Amino acid sequence: MSYETITVKPLAGALGAEIGGVDLSKPLGNQQVEEVHRAFLDHCAIYVRDQELGGEDLLRYARYFAEPAYYPFAEGLPDFPQIFELRKEPDQLKNVGGRWHSDTTYLERPPIATMLYARETPTHGGDTMVAN
C-alpha cells in the first residue's frame, strides 16, 4: 500500500510499523491523518519516533483515532486528566502493571488502542511489549 505524506516501515511480519514524516507537535492535514490511521489499521501498532510533545499534542493525536478515555485505576495529570504518568525507577524491581495485562479491554466499550509516549527509555531491555 502506498503513502504520499508519510513513510511507513514495517517492523515485523505480523505487527508494528514505524511512521515517519510527521510532526505530532502540530495539527496534521486530512491526508496525513487518513494515512496514519490506515497504517494503524494495517499494522495494529505504530511507532512515531523523535517527538517532543506536550499534553495538548498527545490529546490532539489521540483524537485522530477516538475520544481519549479516562483510565479507571490511575489519577491523571492535573491539567490533562486523561493522561497519566507511568514511571519505573532504576531501583524498582517489579515492572509497571505487575505482569502480562491488556489495558482496559474488560470495559463495556474498550478503547480502540493504548497510546504510550516514552520520554526516557533504557539503552537495552525494558519490559513493554505489544500484542494483537
Quick summary of this structure?
17% of the residues lie in helices and 8% in strands.
Structural class per helix/strand content? Answer: alpha+beta
Radius of gyration: 16 Å
Show unreliable segments. none
Q: Can you give the mean pLDDT?
A: 88
- What is the tally of helical segments? 2
**What amount of the residues lies in strands?**
5-15%
Q: Please give the share of residues in helix.
A: 10-25%
Largest sheet: 3 strands, mixed
Give the SSE order as H and E letters: EEHEH
Strand order of the largest sheet: 1-2-3
End-to-end separation:
21 Å
Q: Your description of this structure?
A:
With 132 residues, this protein is an alpha+beta fold. Helices cover 17% and strands 8% of the residues. It has two helices and three strands, in the order ββαβα. A three-stranded mixed beta sheet has the order 1-2-3. Strand 1 and strand 2 (17-20) form a beta hairpin. The longest helix has 14 residues, at 30-43. The mean pLDDT is 88.
